[in-house]
Design brief:
The protein is mainly beta. Helices cover 4% and strands 37% of the residues. It is built from one helix and 27 strands. The strands form three sheets. It has a ten-stranded parallel sheet, covered by helices on one side. Strand 1, helix 1 and strand 2 form a beta-alpha-beta unit. The longest helix has 10 residues. The radius of gyration is 18 Å and the shape is globular. The chain starts with 15 loop residues before the first strand and ends in an 8-residue tail after the last strand.
Length: 262
């Protein structure tokens, strides 16, 4: 005998469900579902497996926005992904995700696959824009796959945010290009950053932590510290090729990092 997986339906008043097929949720697009949840004071939006258009959540606060992750994929081209909550396409000319907020706010984005085809029309647009104001108290970008694009995979301009356990690969620019503004730092922890056309990570600003990442086959050094960096800490990273390019950063603290070829 066989057992069918049954998922309890999402009811009004609970988590807001989005389904691109129009079957399992009230909303078909992420932007509509997220805005409706925000206006109703709901704390979570869940997107089912499927492919969604660009997500612009400028001004959204105090919410968890979650996909279903990757159900199955094999090593190889992006088309090998078989089942995921996917955002993006091959011909956008602006960011696949734009998440900006100001003031004391909390925003978590998790369990998505964000894709552009490399050289696929996104010239000049970083794949993910996760930029927040200095008082942003809990910005978390975790468990996502960010792949492809003609500029940086992730651009961050703000503070008090964490990028954790993401796969960040195959962009023409840097894996992550982060600037901590106004003396408020951010953290890059336990990510796999691979095969990007610029540095693995570009760091600017004060009090940034980069720990326990796997970084390899990125053009140039794996980590680029700009002269504006101050109070940078990196420890426990597994790095390939030239580990650090330091353009004059101050108060750099290094722990046990391995930069041998692998």
């Amino acid at each position: 005998s066989s057992q069918l997986y049954h998922r309890k339906p999402i009811l009004i008043g609970e988590t807001v469900m989005v389904d691109s097929a129009g079957v399992g949720g009230i909303f078909w697009t992420l932007n509509d579902g997220i805005r409706a949840a925000y206006n109703a004071g709901r704390g979570k939006t869940l997107a089912d497996f499927g492919t969604y258009g660009q997500m612009d959540i400028t001004g959204i606060k105090d919410m968890i926005i979650s996909g279903m992750g990757i159900s199955w994929f094999v090593t190889g081209p992006q088309s090998a992904i078989r089942k995921a909550t996917r955002i993006g396409g091959s011909n956008y000319t602006s960011s696949v995700i734009t998440a900006t907020a100001s003031g004391d706010s909390r925003l978590i984005i998790e369990n998505f696959v964000m894709l552009h085809a490399r050289a696929g029309g996104s010239s000049g647009a970083y794949l993910v824009n996760f930029s927040v104001a200095n008082t942003f108290s809990e910005g978390v970008f975790r468990n996502n796959m960010v792949a492809g694009g003609d500029d940086d995979c992730i651009r961050h301009n703000g503070g008090w945010s964490t990028f954790r356990n993401n796969t960040i690969v195959n962009c023409d620019g840097a894996g992550i290009n982060g600037s901590a503004t106004g003396g408020s730092g951010f953290s890059v922890i336990e990510n796999f950053i691979h095969n990007n056309g610029n540095y693995g990570a570009i760091i600017q600003g004060d009090d940034v932590i980069l720990n326990d990442n796997f970084m390899r086959d990125n053009a140039g050094a794996q980590i680029r510290l700009e002269a504006t960096s101050n109070g940078f800490i990196y420890d426990g990273n597994r790095l390939d090729a030239t580990a650090i390019s330091n353009a004059g950063a101050s108060n750099v603290t290094t722990g046990h990092n391995n930069s041998a070829a692998w």
